[in-house]
């Protein structure tokens, strides 16, 4: 949800520069879509992107001069997402140690849409697949943005494609 211009009771806050407001207006929805495709959850994506923009305010003097501030925002949002997932996973592990073990059978049914297919991938594979196919980044750009080796990006793309192929092939074969 986009913040209102004036917040009651908030004082001594310098409003963000126009360029930052313009970046928010132009890129917020796209960033939520990209991070949401990776996260598999729009609410988590919105929170992560909002957190990234909040962090950007304090770093605007530096990041504003970058060729692609959106890439910085994406990297931060994915880092926020990763940290939250790690904390949640650690919480579940702690819960399991105390006797509760839920089993998730995963998606079922004859047709699986792209979102559900992406959800079957690991977050690392989802990230490279979405950044490559949705955002249109090259392997080298993904490696730079995620701070991982090019070979790791290629491996994750290959494994992601291999995992997605059988799930998405059914819908394609039905129309042949």
The number of domains is 2
Cα radius of gyration in angstroms: 19 Å
- What general form does the structure show? globular
Provide the low-confidence segments as ranges.
106-112, 171-176
Question: Using DSSP, what is the number of strands?
Answer: 0
Span of the ends, CA to CA:
42 Å
Query: In this structure, how is the largest beta sheet organized?
Result: none
Strand content: under 5%
Helix content: over 70%
Topology record:
Elements lengths: L17 H22 L2 H22 L5 H29 L16 H6 L3 H13 L3 H8 L3 H25 L2
Helix pairs in contact: 1-2, 1-3, 1-5, 2-3, 5-7, 6-7
What do these coordinates show?
The protein is an all-alpha fold. It has 2 domains: 14-102; 106-176, Winged helix-like DNA-binding domain superfamily/Winged helix DNA-binding domain (Arc Repressor Mutant, subunit A, Orthogonal Bundle). It is built from 7 helices and no strands. It has helices spanning 18-39, 42-63, 69-97, 114-119, 123-135, 139-146, 150-174. The N and C termini lie far apart (42 Å). 23% of the residues are buried.
């Amino acid at each position: 949800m986009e913040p209102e211009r004036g917040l009651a009771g908030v004082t001594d806050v310098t409003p963000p520069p126009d360029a930052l407001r313009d970046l928010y207006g132009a890129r917020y929805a796209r960033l939520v879509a990209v991070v949401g495709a990776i996260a598999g959850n729009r609410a988590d994506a919105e929170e992560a992107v909002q957190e990234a923009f909040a962090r950007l305010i304090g770093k605007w003097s530096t990041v504003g001069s970058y060729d692609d501030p959106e890439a910085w925002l994406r990297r931060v949002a994915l880092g926020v997402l990763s940290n939250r997932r790690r904390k949640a996973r650690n919480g579940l592990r702690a819960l399991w140690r105390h006797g509760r073990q839920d089993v998730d059978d995963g998606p079922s049914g004859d047709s699986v849409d792209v979102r559900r297919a992406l959800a079957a991938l690991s977050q690392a594979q989802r990230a490279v697949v979405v950044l490559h196919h949705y955002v249109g980044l090259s392997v080298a750009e993904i490696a730079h943005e995620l701070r991982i080796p090019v070979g790791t990006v290629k491996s994750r793309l290959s494994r992601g494609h291999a995992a997605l192929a059988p799930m998405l092939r059914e819908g394609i074969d039905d129309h042949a």
